[in-house]
Predict the structure of 33 kDa chaperonin.
Amino acid sequence: MKDYLVKSVVKDGMFRAYAVRTTNLVAEAQKRHDSWSASTAALGRSLTATLLLSSSVLKGEEKLTVKINGGGPTGTIVVDGNANGTVKGYLQNPHVSLPLNGNHHIDVGGAVGHEGVMAVTKDMGMGDPFTGQVGLVSGEIGDDFTYYLAQSEQIPSAVGVSVFVNPDETVGVAGGFLIQVLPDATDDAIDELQARLNALPLVSEMLRDGKTPEQILTEIFSIDDVKFLDKMNVSFKCDCSKERFAKSLATLSKKEIQEMIDQDHGAEAVCHFCGNKYQFSEKDLQEIIDYQK
Ligand SMILES: [Zn+2]
């Protein structure tokens, strides 16, 4: 089954609702970062929530970067998203696994920590990017994105994201939903939504039962109330290249690059986001120095 995201409006415009399956995407991230269960769940939830956020608030070529630092063992999590359904992301420590929490779930809050902030930098393609920052609520990621949307974007929302990791560290399922409350929503409709969300199984349980993103939304709302608008494939995709790394090497001083030639006889650049490695020979480095002149 392919990963995809669906967009919908509910109850004639009272809510906007999105749901996504990210199983393959999070599996790709797990493989690339060789991550362990708590790190996989923390990064997978962040990738999923960033996809949902990006597809709900961005248009065209706009981009955003989410940085979460809760002071926990995973260290900082960084995810880049856009309106076209691709994300890339990494965390400082991919090798975190913790005992299950009191609910018998992966302890994402314990792994991420909640003594810190979540910052979202939006690049709208015109001048200076804008950063909105909020304190973390629980480090469980879904709550933190919900709080960010309410505080920074002034959009009352509900975000649910979930990752199931198999005992052998591979990813079983991953996905999530995002619901935005629009100004026309009545108090009764909001109360009903709240009650349904409280009774909702985990997204990962619904996905393991074979439910599709459309079915996740019709589990939350009555099927007659949901009008599906759009469906979009989603994937983990990095845009790094040797040329990009050459450009960042070119910002170093001539002396520093000369040292790489004399001492290391070359250089290796590793992309944090995807783990790809790029080799620079002595000749490549010399060309960068020559280019600087
Ligand atoms: Zn990369």
Remarks:
- The chain is about 35% helix and 30% strand.
- The chain has two domains: 4-236, 242-291.
